């Protein structure tokens, strides 16, 4: 039995220190926005090489509040990718803005920067690239376009904490970066959590205000905010895990390299890492016309898989009024028909990767 992801194995490896830390928080009597949240914000800001970090209740909230802080609102257009988790576009829509989908690059699976300019209109206010599966998007070209047209850029780095683009960490490559600490992320807590990182003090201060109902002083409200506070227990857990993040990401890279070696002659396509990028391999995704056979064949051997993603966002029911049709964004559509993620996490053993790769080769040969 090889699960798609094994969070229990990670927990048992840190059990004593995790349990002790949680008990310390419980004994403290401070459970929301305590000293661990403050310290985590400083530590992740330092890790990413930025001035500010604001901890929030989820990666989705990070996206929504960042776009709101940049003035994105009703009728504005935000360019993004259709090949991502729904929260990317959902954040745009929640502000009354319109997601404008641009097709992806066939090799990297990230938004294709060569196709962005033709989608820019006088209503375009921002570009929201996603660092899909842990690999940074082509930020140099995206930032150049943004500067040319006076647009803001927000990184959806929810899958990519620790990844690098020409030596700079994800989250430090644009106006702001958004992280998710969902349990399956490379740095995950035991519930929901998120964060915004930025060098923009004004943006950080707005989000800091809004995360607590628009209040700085108890029962006095300066603006309409929301409840998006990170729990103290989650921050304490994340601070422990942050110390392991780089070593875990290196293990992911080693396993990804092994997969690539063993699948080199297989009839499937692997996500390619672009020049200047260092992926953190949140997912290891292959593409094959025999996806269903791969899923079924591995399942028979007790091996888990995941489909990321079964339907691109521009074809989702919720966005039917935007007028997209099948065939409009062919690369993303094809990826959604062929992509399947194989197990990849720090606790996975090399012999397990070899076994999975051998089975995949046999199934799709």
Q: Would you mind describing this structure in some detail?
A:
- This protein is an alpha/beta fold and 365 residues long.
- The chain has two domains: 7-101 and 109-242, Type I PLP-dependent aspartate aminotransferase-like (Major domain) (Aspartate Aminotransferase, domain 2); 246-364, Aspartate Aminotransferase, domain 1 (Alpha-Beta Complex).
- It has twelve helices and 13 strands.
- It has helices spanning 7-13, 15-28, 35-48, 59-69, 87-94, 139-149, 201-210, 232-242, 245-262, 291-300, 330-338, 350-364, and strands spanning 52-56, 77-80, 98-101, 124-128, 152-156, 164-165, 168-169, 176-180, 194-198, 269-270, 277-278, 284-287, 339-342.
- It has a seven-stranded mixed sheet, sandwiched between helices.
- Helix 2 runs antiparallel to helix 8 (232-242), helix 4 (59-69) crosses helix 5 and helix 9 (245-262) runs parallel beside helix 12 (350-364).
- The longest helix has 18 residues, at 245-262.
- It is globular and about 65 Å long.
Give the tags.
single chain, 365 residues, alpha/beta, Aspartate Aminotransferase, domain 2, Aspartate Aminotransferase, domain 1, seven-stranded mixed sheet, three-stranded antiparallel sheet, 13% strand, globular
